[in-house]
Amino acid sequence: MCPVVIQEFDIQNVKTQSGLSVDNVRKLALALADVEESTAYGKPAFLIHGNMLACIASHKSAEPGTLVVCIPIEERAKLLVDKPNVFYLKDHYLNHSSILVRLLRVDLATLRKLFADSWKFVRTKPHKKRRTPRTLSSKNSKTASKQKSSDWKP
After folding, report:
1. Domain that holds residue 102
2. Mean pLDDT to the nearest integer, 3-26
3. Would you say 46 and 29 are in contact if contact means Cβ atoms under 8 Å apart?
4. Model's pTM, two decimal places?
5. Is residue 22 a contact partner of residue 44, using CB atoms and an 8 Å limit?
């Protein structure tokens, strides 16, 4: 297994008065090997070989400014007990291997450690196949084939 290496960057410019921003999260996530940026439900997301590492929470039950980070379900309880003001869960996320992180309350060191643990967890999952985007012509060809088959008469 590859060692987790997070590149260092100017910590002074990372923390804002109101916590960590999406740009801060982006810098931390993209510093990890094989992580690429994408979107999930229109929000920034970070993937490893198609598997979710973290994303900005989009479900209505999550508080604004929440990051969803994938971790083993067995490890959530310790985080929730150790730092309940930083980590939390909502019913929607109970059956998912993830934890909710309040970006306004998490510090850089905690998020860096969480990302390193998440990276190790997500890397063990099988790679997901990339979906090829549907083009307008492929959509029209399906519609055209349906029309042809409906016009068919024995």
Report:
1. 19-127
2. 58
3. yes
4. 0.72
5. yes
